[in-house]
Amino acid sequence: MYFSINSKVNLKIREFIHSNINTNLLLQEEEILIKCKDKKLILYSNNNFTESKLVFSEEIKYKKQGEVVLGSKTLLSILESLKHQEEIEFQKVENSLIKVSSEKFECNLISLVKKFLLVEENLVIPENSKKITLEFEFLNLINNRFKDFYKNLGSNLQKNTVYNTINFKKNKSYSEINVLVTDSYRILFASFSFSDILDEEFQFNLHTEILSCIILLFKDKFENKKLNFYIKGDSLLVNSEGLIFRTKLNSSNYPNLSNLFKQEEQLSFTINKNLLISAIDRNLLLAEQNLNITSYKVLEDNLVLEYRDSSRGFTKEEIKVIKHKGENIHFSLNSLFLKQLLKNISDDEIIFNISEAYKPIVLFGKNEGINFKQIILPLKYS
């Protein structure tokens, strides 16, 4: 085996390896199959949760066919250190060594034994699968808006729970796609309408880390600004020219949380986001770790924040609300959870809709509320 790559191919390979490492469920070193065949360079990875294949043809210098299995993290480190090099050569030499060289640098890697899982010919579109076409811009927008939230959920995919997934749902005869993610204390909800989407229902639960991997892998690959998803059973496959990605889905029934956003509010108030975030920071100056429960009172045109600690004292601050409708109300929230939701909203003015003191509180930006809304659960605390 003998081939060379340029810096552009180096970047694509690093992104390919990085996406697979991020979704690795195995404890041992993940491996990658590299194959030169029919004047093509093929990279294949299977970590028992995600499976992907990347193919290059015109962008490489093909010299001799062959194949090798290398450790993913080791290869990623070498490629990262050589990212500014114009050309990197890979050559299989005697004693199963792989020589990686560029200018005056040379590294000889010991090839690994090929595992049964590393068979890239099995990665094909399954027969009788459901094809769902989604706009890349829509997926990227969802990922950008949701990623900071689900990063806080933890990155352990072994927690195979519905609360570690993003739910995509479309009802039959409707043009809307609804997207939900929750940690059981907070809910993020997005709803977008598409005039050209098929009149067919679908629903699937995608693990939170996987959406970011799809965006990373296919950002330079999608054609006509759309991606085709093929779903069969608990498997989802995404296909584009030269790149195939397959992952496991969570087959659990996702709770019907979207109805919570339809509750009729009895009280509504609008407040400046930055003022509220600053007030939360000051309010928690006395708080110990994991004790971030703040009392909130809406009194006429003011929002009053109070935090009390039996050993440290208490803080209190009033901030002006921009608009207030309904009666006065008192509720308690985990302020760190609220702060994370506030930062997730791009608008300067935030609207809070409340039905009752202990019912879910809906909050959204003044302008973006048509597409994005969030829920936080109040606490019974005084």
From TrEMBL:
<keyword id="KW-0808">Transferase</keyword>
<protein>
    <submittedName>
        <fullName>DNA polymerase III subunit beta</fullName>
        <ecNumber>2.7.7.7</ecNumber>
    </submittedName>
</protein>
<keyword id="KW-0963">Cytoplasm</keyword>
<dbReference type="GO" id="GO:0006271">
    <property type="term" value="P:DNA strand elongation involved in DNA replication"/>
</dbReference>
<comment type="function">
    <text>Confers DNA tethering and processivity to DNA polymerases and other proteins. Acts as a clamp, forming a ring around DNA (a reaction catalyzed by the clamp-loading complex) which diffuses in an ATP-independent manner freely and bidirectionally along dsDNA. Initially characterized for its ability to contact the catalytic subunit of DNA polymerase III (Pol III), a complex, multichain enzyme responsible for most of the replicative synthesis in bacteria; Pol III exhibits 3'-5' exonuclease proofreading activity.</text>
</comment>
<dbReference type="Pfam" id="PF02768">
    <property type="entry name" value="DNA_pol3_beta_3"/>
</dbReference>
<comment type="similarity">
    <text>Belongs to the beta sliding clamp family.</text>
</comment>
<dbReference type="GO" id="GO:0003677">
    <property type="term" value="F:DNA binding"/>
</dbReference>
<feature type="domain" description="DNA polymerase III beta sliding clamp C-terminal">
    <location>
        <begin position="260"/>
        <end position="379"/>
    </location>
</feature>
<dbReference type="InterPro" id="IPR001001">
    <property type="entry name" value="DNA_polIII_beta"/>
</dbReference>
<dbReference type="GO" id="GO:0003887">
    <property type="term" value="F:DNA-directed DNA polymerase activity"/>
</dbReference>
<dbReference type="InterPro" id="IPR022635">
    <property type="entry name" value="DNA_polIII_beta_C"/>
</dbReference>
<dbReference type="InterPro" id="IPR046938">
    <property type="entry name" value="DNA_clamp_sf"/>
</dbReference>
<keyword id="KW-0235">DNA replication</keyword>
<keyword id="KW-0238">DNA-binding</keyword>
<keyword id="KW-0239">DNA-directed DNA polymerase</keyword>
<comment type="subunit">
    <text>Forms a ring-shaped head-to-tail homodimer around DNA which binds and tethers DNA polymerases and other proteins to the DNA. The DNA replisome complex has a single clamp-loading complex (3 tau and 1 each of delta, delta', psi and chi subunits) which binds 3 Pol III cores (1 core on the leading strand and 2 on the lagging strand) each with a beta sliding clamp dimer. Additional proteins in the replisome are other copies of gamma, psi and chi, Ssb, DNA helicase and RNA primase.</text>
</comment>
<keyword id="KW-0548">Nucleotidyltransferase</keyword>
<dbReference type="GO" id="GO:0008408">
    <property type="term" value="F:3'-5' exonuclease activity"/>
</dbReference>
<dbReference type="GO" id="GO:0009360">
    <property type="term" value="C:DNA polymerase III complex"/>
</dbReference>
<dbReference type="GO" id="GO:0005737">
    <property type="term" value="C:cytoplasm"/>
</dbReference>
